[in-house]
Amino acid sequence: MPVKRIGEIALIEEIRKKFPQRRREILTSIGDDAMVFKNGLIVSTDSFVEGVHFDLRYFNFYQLGFRTMAGSVSDLAAMAAEPICALVSLYLPRSVRKRDVSQLYQGFKLLADRFRMDISGGDIVESPYWGVTLTVIGYTRKPLLRSTARPGDGLYVTNYLGLAETGRIVLQKGYPKNLFKCAIRRHLLPEPRVKEARVLIKYTSAGIDTSDGLSTDALHLADESGVKIVIDADSLPIHSELRGLLKYRRIDPVRFILSAGEDFEMLFTARRVPDFKSVKIFRIGRVDKGKGVWLEHSGKITPLKPTGFEHLK
Amino acid sequence: MPVKRIGEIALIEEIRKKFPQRRREILTSIGDDAMVFKNGLIVSTDSFVEGVHFDLRYFNFYQLGFRTMAGSVSDLAAMAAEPICALVSLYLPRSVRKRDVSQLYQGFKLLADRFRMDISGGDIVESPYWGVTLTVIGYTRKPLLRSTARPGDGLYVTNYLGLAETGRIVLQKGYPKNLFKCAIRRHLLPEPRVKEARVLIKYTSAGIDTSDGLSTDALHLADESGVKIVIDADSLPIHSELRGLLKYRRIDPVRFILSAGEDFEMLFTARRVPDFKSVKIFRIGRVDKGKGVWLEHSGKITPLKPTGFEHLK
């Protein structure tokens, strides 16, 4: 059977079944944002491929470096870990210019410096296309997991969702950039919520970063925790630039947010939340007994299928 | 400047200069086979690209899984670490079949089971071509480094060199397989020297795995240790199957061994060595004061340029 018929998620589930975990050094692994060692080290790996994850027509190499490192560090933020270092695996075409690679590393460095991370090696290989695989390592005494949401919790998100995808569409379609500054910035230079997550860990029961789209990310929480998550459509915050996109495209903003990925905000469950100066927090739903993700709209609750991006599907 | 003019090694050196290491958790990083945490964890990452590292015309997916995992685990062996787990990043074309991915994982598993390693997650992304990036994690209280060879040491290698490249050529050119069984096996299913390295650490001053070709691997030892390495051409062991290749191709066996990579044997410096039942050890040279790699042939010593495989060159 071709993999595109089953998709990435089913493939990972199948792999997980075949590889029971047996090392006593490891706390959790396949199924969460990153693997967790009992000594507190957290390791995550993420790949970005030209033409699939990024388009060199509107990403310069500096932005590409920042963007890929931000996406990887967001996996550490998702577990409320402090970043320590990154290993860089580059797939480079032979025609690549040295200046491009230098700019890519400058982008890595800007993000890494923000969190005092080291770039600790990796490898460089020839390839027909650009590809970047980043392995990031962090530390936390108490990891924030996907599997510990409890009925009765509220569902919260940092900041507005759907902005990164708005920015991607604006750049791809050539809509006026000056009307979508926040959205474009979120697509090219997203901010992983490392510092916020280190505070949130005191309040949250479970959490994840929003990388696959709200419906899919919420399903990860519901599945791993064995709970039902109800998203309140009427309380989803809609950013003015996402509303601005409506002038150019017929979209339903709620459906858009449910499937738009790569905002790298924190989606989490908690009884109460702190106030941040750096970012707003919105309550967008709740955790109930049951399973799956549901959408509540004008008092009516319907089951929600994950519509986020999935590779190989 | 196009990167192919400067090559992978100069590029990595340039990157190293721009990224001074500052995290106190980390002992060594860019420049060795893997990065080393002060708590003893070792992390290494390695990438394999279709058409560059492997050819799907004569690798089946099971062999590909075994081969790529063996190559990565060899980086842990190079530092005399005990393997713990691996993270798998797959670049898969949309057309890939589920059976191919299952067989690939069976190959990973066979090698991983041998050392009681876990497969602890990773990610799967769409890509125009096959690519595999493996991040392996191991543990050692005392890592074997490249930077600690001392004048007066002997230079040793486990087993014969040049066999994997012999196997690759035989498969690519379609020479009779039954005459080159060891060589083909070394190319498709190499054995990382994990167990031997754990014993060797008691004897060796410095070490590396032979992945880039003897001349390049020896140069890594010489450069990182600040010593001169003299390879004794007359004592290089030549396997009968490499001699067999002479019937089909005009090659100089010594030159061949100096540049042929991916044998994943241990190249190390020591005052004395133990006996192994599992593998032969050959003394092939010595460490002197000075720098660079030199070849001694019939009593004459000449400087040796690295001729091993280098990406982007």
Explain what the structure shows.
In chain A, helix 2 (61-78) runs parallel beside helix 6 and helix 4 (163-173) packs across helix 5. Chain A has helices spanning 3-18, 61-78, 98-114, 163-173, 181-188, 194-200, 214-225, 240-245, 253-259, and strands at residues 26-28, 35-37, 41-49, 82-92, 118-126, 131-139, 154-158, 204-209, 228-232, 266-270, 281-288, 292-297, 300-303. The first copy, chain A, folds into 2 domains: 3-139, 2-Layer Sandwich (60s Ribosomal Protein L30, Chain: A); 154-303, Phosphoribosyl-aminoimidazole Synthetase, Chain A, domain 2, CATH 3.90.650.10. The first copy, chain A, is of the alpha+beta class and 313 residues long. In chain A, the strands form 2 sheets. Chain A has a 7-stranded mixed beta sheet. Chain A has a 6-stranded mixed beta sheet with strand order 1-2-3-6-4-5. The mean pLDDT of chain A is 90. Chain A is built from 9 helices and 13 strands. The two termini of chain A are 13 Å apart. Chain A is globular.
